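Good morning,

Attaching, inline, the backbone tokens for the sequence recovery test we're adding to the shared suite. The designed sequence is right after.
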């Protein structure tokens, strides 16, 4: 697939020099870089723990005003 990218000139020059040294193409370097980045992001996402979802009754205790920091601190047992 062909695509057009707008890449900083200095970065392209460095990448082309690397491609020459490694006897590969600029396209291949870009593909490798994207693959590495996508794999790393996938590994991070897979490493995140899933949180349990509890379906049931809950909420704030009666008398607690969710719009009042003082009320919430008092309900948590902290000094207001």
């Amino acid at each position: 697939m062909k695509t057009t990218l707008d890449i900083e000139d200095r970065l392209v020059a460095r990448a082309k020099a690397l491609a020459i040294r490694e006897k590969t193409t600029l396209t291949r370097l870009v593909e490798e870089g994207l693959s590495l980045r996508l794999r790393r992001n996938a590994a991070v996402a897979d490493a995140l723990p899933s949180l349990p979802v509890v379906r049931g009754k809950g909420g704030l205790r009666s008398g607690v005003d969710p719009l009042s920091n003082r009320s919430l601190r008092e309900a948590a047992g902290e000094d207001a």
